[in-house]
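Good morning,

Attaching, inline, the backbone tokens for the sequence recovery test we're adding to the shared suite. The designed sequence is right after.
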């Protein structure tokens, strides 16, 4: 792969050149943190903060769809007003977003390795901000779906480049902590979308009709995304060249156009011939499988270390369960709580916020514990396995409580959601650091992209299958039990990862 001058030149000890070792990598000449006094603010801490803001707005943009759809169903407005199976349709809308998000995971990482990771991060955030604002202006079902898919296609390029940039810019002793701190923005963004959507809607009612009040949620979050995108553009200005940014955006846009055509063709043809929402979601996942096979056929020799690495591939499979759980609860948690406790939209949103809010603690705590364990000689795989096992037990407990309790308590559900999510969020930065250690430095962007491409199959299916099970059974119990079973399956697959031998770091 070739690098592009101007984007990949980083101040001392923080190279972003594809293939170049980052600070703390075994191949690096020196660790910039070596001998440094702990607790001092470093340049990579500023990078963490800005990327955290990027995660926050990006996660809020994608998460707001679930609460908005739930509000539409409860109030019988918009394109959900006359849906025969509203939860199935709502879940499919969420799944189609993640179909777009999924299909640019690998291209986004590959283009980051080629054009520079900062360039793709800026393109991704600007793209997401514009399309989120536009979503608030269009209300028809098909137009809404198209803009949600296009938003996903842009946001899909963020993850692999963010993870790779942190790896290259952070000393190894703090790498997992950095990944945990930054991805805390995911939890913050989901929490904002879950808890404050009722407030956004109420604000919309003061300016719009009651049936159009939902639009305000997309306008508020879209503008916030644009502000963060422009802030990062300014911060990365010495690494960005307009011509390179333009070429990268066009290259990503080419992938996006093809992906959009494929995703919408599956949806429109499937809907036209009467396929259920579940089968349409399954066919969208088949697109991702086809993409993996296409990449293997076209670039098998170049990307063999990413696609054919046994341990990396096991981690990719584990992320199907991780992202299924993440977006099943992120999309439907308000509806799950409301259906079980028969509470108001606002009360259910507040209780469901415990699930998302746990990441504000879990992400950085998991990253810190992973780095601490590495310095003590523990392996990251063992740490991730422990957190996954605890999450599995608590998720099973939540499913059992929904099944056994006649009148589930909001407080009990909130505690179970919080504790399960605490360990769930803690395991993710550990997994990211493990992927970075297993992947070749020059292919980390591609490895993170492939990890999320395969993992997002769970995100595509979970809202749709969850909604179908809710409509067919009349409750969320079966869907929650299915989620618990997949968490257990992820634990078993993770146990087969060999990982790397732990090293002692000063």
């Amino acid at each position: 792969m070739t690098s592009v001058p101007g984007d990949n030149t980083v101040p001392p000890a923080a190279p972003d050149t594809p293939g170049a070792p980052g600070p703390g990598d075994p191949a690096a000449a020196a660790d910039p943190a070596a001998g440094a006094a702990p607790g001092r603010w470093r340049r990579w801490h500023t990078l963490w903060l800005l990327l955290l803001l990027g995660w926050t707005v990006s996660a809020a943009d994608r998460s707001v769809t679930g609460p908005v759809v739930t509000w539409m169903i409860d109030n019988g407005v918009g394109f959900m007003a006359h849906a025969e199976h509203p939860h199935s349709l709502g879940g499919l809308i969420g799944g189609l977003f993640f179909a777009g998000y999924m299909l640019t995971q690998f291209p986004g990482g590959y283009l980051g390795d080629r054009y520079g990771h900062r360039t793709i991060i800026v393109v991704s955030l600007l793209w997401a901000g514009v399309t989120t604002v536009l979503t608030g202006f269009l209300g028809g079902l098909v137009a809404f779906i198209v803009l949600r898919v296009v938003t996903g296609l842009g946001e899909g390029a963020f993850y692999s480049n963010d993870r790779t940039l942190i790896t290259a810019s952070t000393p190894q002793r703090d790498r997992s902590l950095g990944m945990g701190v930054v991805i805390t923005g995911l939890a913050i963004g989901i929490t904002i979308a879950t808890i404050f959507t009722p407030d956004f809607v109420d604000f919309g009612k003061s300016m719009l009709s009651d049936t159009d009040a939902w639009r305000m949620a997309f306008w508020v979050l879209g503008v916030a995304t644009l502000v963060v995108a422009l802030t990062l553009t300014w911060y990365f200005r010495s690494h960005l060249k307009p011509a390179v940014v333009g070429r990268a955006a066009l290259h990503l846009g080419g992938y996006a156009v093809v992906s959009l055509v494929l995703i919408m063709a599956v949806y429109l043809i499937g809907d036209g011939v009467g396929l259920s929402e579940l089968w349409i979601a399954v066919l969208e996942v088949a697109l991702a499988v086809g993409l993996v096979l296409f990449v293997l056929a076209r670039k098998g020799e170049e990307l063999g270390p990413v696609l054919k690495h046994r341990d990396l591939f096991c981690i990719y499979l584990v992320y199907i369960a991780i992202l299924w759980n993440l977006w099943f609860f992120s999309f439907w948690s308000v509806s799950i709580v409301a259906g079980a406790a028969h509470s108001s939209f606002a009360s259910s949103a507040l209780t469901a916020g415990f699930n998302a809010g746990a990441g504000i603690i879990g992400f950085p705590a998991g990253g810190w514990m992973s780095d601490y364990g590495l310095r003590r000689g523990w392996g990251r795989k063992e740490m991730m396995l422990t957190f996954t096992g605890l999450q599995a037990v608590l998720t099973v407990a939540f499913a059992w409580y929904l099944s056994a309790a006649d009148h589930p308590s909001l407080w009990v559900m909130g505690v179970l959601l919080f504790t399960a999510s605490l360990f769930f969020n803690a395991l993710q930065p550990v997994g990211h650091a493990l992927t970075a250690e297993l992947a070749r430095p020059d292919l980390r962007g591609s490895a993170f992209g492939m990890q999320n491409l395969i993992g997002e199959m769970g995100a595509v299916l979970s809202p749709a299958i969850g909604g179908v099970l809710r409509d067919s059974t009349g409750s969320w119990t079966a869907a929650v039990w299915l989620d618990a079973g997949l968490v257990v399956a992820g634990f078993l697959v993770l146990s087969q990862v060999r990982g790397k031998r732990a090293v002692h770091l000063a």
